[in-house]
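hi support,

uploading two proteins for the ticket. first:
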Amino acid sequence: MCSNVYSSALLCDCDSVCVCVDCRLSTANIFLSFSLFILHHLSNSTTLFTVHHRRVHSFSSSISPSFFGVLASQARISLSLSLGIYQSLQTSKISNNCVFPTMSSEPVAKDNKDFDIIDNVVLVNVKRTGVSGLPSTTSVISGIMEGLGAKVLLSSQDSSKGTVCFVVYEKEVDAVAAALESRFQKESVDGCHSKVEVIPNCSILSAVDQEGADSPGVGVSFINAQAKENVNVLAIAQGGSETTVTVVLKKEDCTRALQAFNSRFYLSKTTIAMGIVGPGLIGATLLDQIRDQAAILKKDFDIDLRVMGIIGSTRMILSDLGIDLSRWRELQKEKGEVADMEKFTQHVHGNQFIGNTILVDCTADSNVASLYYEWLRRGIHVITPNKKANSGPLDQLRALQRQSYTHYFYEATVGAGLPIISTLRGLQETGDKILRIEGIFSGTLSYIFNSFIGERAFSEVVREAKQAGYTEPDPRDDLSGTDVARKVIILARESGLKLELSDVPVQSLVPEPLQVSSSAEQFMQQLPQFDQDVAKKRHDAEAAGEVLRYVGVVDVVNQKGSVELRRYKKDHPFARLSGSDNIISFTTTRYKDHPLIIIGPGAGAQVTAGGVFGDVVRVASYLGAPS
């Protein structure tokens, strides 16, 4: 780096070093040199170094304000350096009123966005009533501040001019508050009632967007970004130039506020940090689909997906910049560490520069599903094909999701990649009324009864399905009907019914004597003993020109659900199904005479992962990605 340095100086406080470099150097070289310089000193446990950049407009280019973010992008340096700088600033001796570098996924051609942070400030709220004939609240505050030699950093008043809030440094607030109380105590004899409220431990965040004057809604979009990060804005001021928005917030909210700022002004609107839980068959397929589609999503739809972590039952891999999905399997073996769900969650969600986080649960684990509430509470979007959460207590998840500005999507819990949940929601959101939902929801049982024809034995078809990989390792998990019952509960709740799993009667296809078989192998050996029972049901159906189908029903009108083996005429849509396809029929006030039917593959890694991926893209669209 020394050959690029024009001058340097050690400041008098011995805590800061300023370095002048040639701004005509490539940004990547400057960033790489600075990073090595800072990393060297940090590794020797010295005081924090703060980089101040000065814009030199006579050159054709200048150092981007997004110093460390582009550093991570251009020089492939770990973001962990950037992540610590703002937090360190709060305890360093360097002035807090300094520019903090922000992140960009691309080099910035011109300096048109920036922000300042001022810490260690206090918000003072003054409310006066009965002030007719007395000096205005603003003039009173101005006089007191001038007399004390104190500085107002920000002020705002309501239309009545009786309520004013302003911000001062912590070191000045005691004197200011005392002077205000003294002044207002004297006014009380004239019928004026005043209240002074001091809110400590605040920070000021001032965002500058030189293009703001030409972009409607800059202030609103900035506040919306803060709301999505669950940051409470205590006060706001926007200049008439429309280029600067300044907010006051609690100091502990600064990290999330910076995330929101970076998401709104520097990153793609839909840069998303993702964590994948369960890289099994579904999870691995999803990762491969993201790998193949990532470049197209970024180029054509402004969606930048960065998988920051992958966690399995025993191992996990984490990355500050995003895992190379072309090598994630190798990286997990080479660089994987012991699985730690809390560390994983903190890493994926703790990136200060990416305000949007999605955790995707590709497991069937109820323990993972029990974590959804905490994830949503922390502002993390949750996507899953795991039915365990939605067939259990759901009201709390939904209430929290709405309160925390998060999304909780689970399209793949019913029908894999088929648009079942989204269709149901679309019908209701447009004013249609659901009367009945009926369907073949199990790809396994669809295959079994589509193949259970002629003189074939039921046990023979079940064995065939098991060998083809359609059933669970223990076929009783499918034949019990519990999986279908979970899907019925999910659809019932989406339809407005308050049903629990215990409310749904389920006709199990597992013969009662075999429900306690010690193993799947023993079950399969004993199942032929009961073939005659199912064969008789098939014979009776065929004699009436009907077929057997295993279905789930949501009867919204009578507020109940059921799972059972039913008979259908051979010209019924359910009777014409083939393979492992699912079919779902919606009877509504609009589709009463001719129900709306959705049919297609309801099982398989590709379609299930595709359904999950669709939810990821749906979250991105809600976060601002163009359609």
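and the second one:
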Amino acid sequence: MGLFWRVLIILPLFFAYVNGEHFTYPSRHPGKAELAGFKGPDSLATDGGGFFSGPLVVDNDVTATSGNQGGTTEVTVAKPGDDTLEASKGDDGIRYANLIEAATTFKGSWELFLENGGVSAMHLILLPKINQALVFDATVWKISKIKLPGPPCRHVEGTNEEDCFAHSVLMDIETGKLRPLRLNYDTWCSSGGLDINGRLVSTGGFNNGSDTVRILDLCDTCDWKEYPGALANGRWYATQVTLGDGKFMVFGGRDFPTYEFVPPEGKKNTHQDVVDFNFLVETHDPVENNLYPFVYLSTDGNIFIFANNRSVILNPKTHKIIHEFPVLPNGARNYPASGSACLLPIILKPNEDRSVIPAEILICGGAPHDAFEKADLQRPKVFLPGSCDCARLDFTKRDSKWNIFNMPSARLLGDMAVLPTGDVLIVNGAKTGSAGWDDAREPNLNPVLYKFQTDGTSPKFTVLNPSNIPRMYHSSFAVLPDAKVLIAGSNTNPGYLDDALFPTEVRVEKFSPHYLDPNLAMFRQEIIAEKSNNKLKYGQKFTVQIRGSGVIDQQKLQVTIYSPPFVTHGICMNQRLIQLGILEFNKDVIPNTNNIVLQAPMNGNIAQPGYYMLFVNYNGVPCLRSIWIQILP
């Protein structure tokens, strides 16, 4: 069939898809109060999926088109990591490796996955192997949107009350089926991470849960195991980080400027196990602004810690701060100013032998230092504008300085999801105010795509299509095996309220990013799981088999592994994406089937032991579905 006739057939279907009702959900809160400064998604200037307005920046070998044209343009540039090709320098002063990918004008699509997720997703993590999202909020409310399946109910401490609501659920990410779980010790504003075997180890919370360690195993009938008193200090609004040997540390928490290692299951820390951390004293504003610090394991085994507007490198063995970076200006970034942060992709070369592997943090948004005071303590409330800037820093270099640049709009209370391609989806949040009960306004409904690598001339940010559900304080996300992003949560209320300015949100959405443009479906490869290695040792060579139509160009392949984060309050604990070095590419081992020979990361400081989703991206388009791999110590 000629190209003209293909276009003639496809174009009407494409218009129907773009202009359809796929962004409109029925209101769950009839008669709710008008949102101050918010007129709904129709008031926002957005481009429909598959169309672009303005110039498309491409390389010199491709002719740019303009106007309302759908479809894709394949951009041929240099391969990342090719030392024979000079990287470009962006206007932010950052040097970017060039990247091969199929460009698209598709700006994403939203689908309502669940009308009632049972529990508002204050905390969210995708569990490996069983492919279920674990969602929980807090027992303090004594209510949710789903009941426990039967007795026993939870005895409310210090009262004669019984609480028969579930405050934690497992959510099947394909069917939406919910399984309520029992919690006795309050998880409000807690922390967590996956252990080597994929179990969630959760720490801290509120009141009777503040010194609790909880573990959830991976099985169809597993429930929480709770160990109150396991921590020596209360950990409310604390951050948990996984070390290169699989152990956990937990930093900070309200009224406790300290840290401690999380004890083995069933054991208890004493006060002798607590380390005073004066950095958290020094970064404490009158309204805190240093809770939920951003904490990441560096590729050299040290720990990067950012709190308020300062950042240091801590040696976890000597307990000494070995370096402090320049102050990041323009406000505070941590709770309750509540910017967001992520570790940018760690890129490995084939036969990796570098002594230091670069690692960069990206921090976006936040609020002025007095934003919480104005919004929460002052009457009438004043909602200060959030920050519009982002900043990058390579914390493996002691002479690093912040590279600061603007994103398209102000954002606080947002989330940063590292996508399988390494690009960052900035989503959720508000434009003014602070974290806290009813302390923010102007929901930021448009996700923004941040291209962590560009050719130095093309835009770093792309504004994507909006949701019509405000996701404010206590929102969350999870990157899914099919490369969609689960979006949930939002509760600005001390309890479950349906008639508030921003009601307690239990609806769950899925967002399809730019690379799921239907016109790019031809590039999606299928991983043949039974022919691919899924248990690895450090440095091991291993094979992943893929199947797809057409001839595969090795230069357009990218293989990444992704560690699912524990997401809460704009912080994504232990989120980590690593691009693996490709050693060999064996074409057509059978028709339309190819083997990719890869090298596992060299040690646990690069990739902590445990479970990762492995994605194969071709032309910048993720595979149909990732596979789970386990890196063993």
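thanks. also noticed: The chain has two domains: 109-516, 524-631.
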